[in-house]
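From the shared-data thread, chain only:
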Amino acid sequence: MEGNKSPALVSVIVPIYNTVNYLERCVDSIRRQTWRNLEIILVDDGSTDNSGAMAEKIAMEDRRVKVFHKENGGSSSARNLGISQAKGDYIGFVDSDDYIEPEMYERLLAVALSEQLLMVQVSRDEIDEQGNRMADVCIPPKQAQLWECGQFLRELLLHRGDCSFCTKLVHASLLCGERFPEGELNEDFNLLVRLLPKVPAVAVLPEQDYHVFYRYGSNTRTRDEEEFPQVFTDIVKNADRVQEIVKEAYPELIPEAMRFGLFQRLDYMLHIPISQMNKKNDFYMQVRDYLKKHRKDALRSPYLTKKNKQYLFLLGTAPVLVRKAHRALKRQRDKHE
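Structure, as C-alpha cells:
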C-alpha cells in the first residue's frame, strides 16, 4: 500500500465545539506522539466559547497544526471537513475532550504497515469528571488479535466490539467517497458498518491508549429523565441498516443481527420518556410493533440474556405499564443508595 520511501503521514482530525477547558490537554497529547510525521487538523465547529482562539494559539506553536473554522453543523460535518483537508496516508480521529497516550499512533501505524492493513484499532478506557477510571465499556483483548471483517462485525452486533473511529487508524483510501452521516448520532457505527465489507481484516491491540473523558451533557449523558437524546432513535435506524448489510454480505450473521436489532430497541424503550409513548409518536409505534412482532425471536435468541428476553417480551406486550413499573423500581432503588 505504501509505494514511497518517505515516512507515512498520519492526519489526526479533531472536531471542536465548546471544549476550551479540555482542548489543550487533547492537542498536547497528539503533539507528544512518538510518531512525529503528523498533521493535526483542528475543526472549530462554530464554538461560542474561546475554543477557536485557543486552537489558533496552538497552531502558532506547532507547524503541524492546521485550524479550520465553520458554522456549527455537528461532529460529523466537522470530521467530514477534516477528511476533505487531510493529506495523510492514514487518518485518525480524536474527540476534543479526550486524550491519548504518546505511543498510540506509532503503535497503530507499525501494525498497519507490517500487516498491510486498511484499519487498525487500539483499546480504550473511560475517565470520569473526577479523574476516576470507570468500568471498561469494551473489554480489551489480552493480546493483539487479527479479525477478518465478518468476525469484527459479529463482535459489534454482540456489543463486544468498539465502533468508535477515535480508537482506529484507517487508510485514507477507505474514506474516498465515504463520509460520516450528518444530522445523525451513532455516526461512527453508521460509517463503520458501511466500510467493513471493504476491509479484509482489522487488527485489535490490547493497549488502552485512548482515554475517553466521560462528562455529562453530551449525547446520552443526561440526568433529566424527560430528556430523550436523538441517539436512541438513531441506534434503531442503524440496527435496520446493518441488518440489510448482513442479509446481503454476511447471511451467516442474521441471528446476531436480529439480536442487535432487538437490543437496540430495548435500549430505546427503556429511555424514551413515558410521556412520549403514545400513538401520535410514529417512531415509537414502529418500535413497539416490531417488538410485538418479534417476541418469539427474542425468546429464542441464544445471544440475549434471560433478563433481556423478559423485558423485550413485556415491552412488546404492555410497554407503558412496564415502563411505569420500571421507573417506580428505579426511584425506590435510588432512594436506598
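DSSP finds twelve helices and nine strands in the chain.
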